[in-house]
Amino acid sequence: MLNVCEISSSTWYDYKKEKPVNIKPKPRGRPIPGYTVNPDGTVVMDVSVVDAIKSYRKKPEFMNGGGYHKLKYYLRRDFNYFINHKKLYRLCKTHKLLLPTNKKKD
User: Which of 3, 8, 41, 66 could be cross-linked to 70 through a Cys-Cys bond (beta carbons 3.0 to 4.6 Å apart)?
Assistant: First the structure.
């Protein structure tokens, strides 16, 4: 019958298999550790980094300006936290500390 319909047997038997429903896909990449290690070997927990970012966001000069790249340098200067800008972006995004992006005016 499959030869008459010109369907390969692998297609037919794959179609007959029951497909699982509502399976969550595996998360991609390595798991988030929850801490950062400075070059001198000290461990900084992400909670303390988020608290420092929140303290900056309360200041008037950081309410409307100063993105995560600028925050990286201030955290390094004031708290001696050496954090990658990608990790800082992820922390700001998960805790809703990012500022809205400026849209180009016509």
Answer: 66
